[in-house]
Amino acid sequence: MSQAQITDWLASQKQAMIDLLRDVVNIDSDSYDKDGVDAVGARFERHFAEHGIPCRREGDATFGDAIHADVAKPGSNEKPVLLMGHRDTVFGKGEAGRRPFTIKDGRAYGPGVADMKSGVVMNIFVATAFHKFGGNPHPIKLLITSDEEIGSPSSRPVIEREGRSARAVFNSEPGRPTGNIVTGRKGGIFMHLGITGKAAHSGANFAAGVSAIGELAHKIVQIHALTDLDKGITLNVGLVSGGQSVNTTAPYAEGQIDLRYVDPADRARVMDAIQTIVATSFVPGTHATLTIKGEFVPVVQSADSKALFESYQAAARQAGLTTLQGEFSGGCADSGFTAAVGTPTICGLGPVGGLAHTPEEYLEIDSIVPRAQALALAILRG
Questions:
Q1: Is 246 left (phi over 0), alpha (psi -120 to 50) or beta?
Q2: Sign (positive/negative) of CA torsion 157, 168, 150, 219?
């Protein structure tokens, strides 16, 4: 095996990577759509079968199954390099039909094209190159998860288990629009705030009513006031609903809260403040509950992760990515879980894209091959 065989083969596979990406972008795979997420998984399994790469599913009754694949190093019992990615998206049923995979002016479009189906495709082809030609200094493990966009409720224990058993983790979330990768991320908590009040006719019996919507409004103002941009702490109530009718005091209301933070020490302090707000009734007679629905931990760069980044950066220069740097992202990702268990981790290694979670999400087509080559060269560096 020569290094050139790996990088040349990856260059020859650009259209094959685009074709696989088209197939999976055109399958709806919202995090809550188990059938759709598993259909994307089945398409990846077909690739593994065609190339003779061993793979297996780790089933889940509610969310998509975790998919594992291995490219072994013969006779080795060493810890593997873990290539990680998720195949779920934030887009509901029918979105792929409304705006299927398209390419225009060097950019690909479609639901999840950058975040992060292209990164999973890239990981798969890099692993396939080593399966075909050998030369990997350590075993390679692929993990393709199913529910990252909602905080990985089923995948987190799988990710943490696989992360603990790995020597290094490369998470192929989309490369930044700058072309950089991600060396640090915020932590995040997704919460549900439920409020009960009391229904009453808002004209004939107004005084007997207790408005849950009124209480929610007070709590939103208080929760948003916890934002501290200088410390990187943000609070956002991004979804609200409630009420029975326009002429009834609202017996119920709810809000979905997004907390982001940088310093792990800030988590407990902000959560205590939120709990105090939840426990305080601004409208007498209301009652509130708070439930954590999903959580990410921050990616904090350790000395070993810094060394892993520097090794990757040198590999990227070999692949022609001479200006690549590490940068911080306010977004959360599964890489936080592997970083938190102490495994050297870097993120954002996928093809370059932007405007994730919007109809304008795009992928830079010409970034696919060099980013794949950079990852392969980083693996070869050991």
A1: alpha
A2: positive
Strand 362-364 versus strand 107-109 pairing type: antiparallel
Residues 19, 66: Cα–Cα separation, whole Å:
23
Rounded Cα gap, residues 225 and 289, in angstroms = 19
- Name 29's bridge partners: none
Specify the amino acid at residue 77.
N
pLDDT tens digits, one per residue of 26-63: 999 999 999 999 999 999 999 999 999 999 999 999 99
Query: Which two structure tokens, joined as six digits, stand for 67?
Result: 């998919």
Q: At what angle do helices 264-279 and 212-224 cross, to 10 degrees?
A: 150
Give counts: helices (H), strands (E), the chain.
Answer: 11, 16
Are the beta carbons of 36 and 28 closer than 8 angstroms?
A: yes
- pLDDT tens for each residue of 60-77: 999 999 999 999 876 667
Q: How far apart are CA 381 and CA 114, in angstroms?
A: 26
Give the strand pairing for 353-354 and 362-364. antiparallel
CA distance linking residue 291 with residue 28, whole number of Å:
28
DSSP string of 52-84?
T--EEEE--SSSPPEEEEEE--TT--SPPEEEE
DSSP one-letter code for 356: T
- For residues 368 and 119, give the distance between their C-alpha atoms in angstroms, rounded to a whole number: 9
What is the spatial distance between Cα 303 and Cα 191, in angstroms, rounded to a whole number? 32
Sign of the dihedral defined by the CA atoms of residues 175, 180, 182, 188, in that order: negative
pTM: 0.90
In the block, which residue shows the tokens 């919202």? 30
Question: Would the CA dihedral through 309, 347, 39, 26 be positive or negative?
Answer: negative
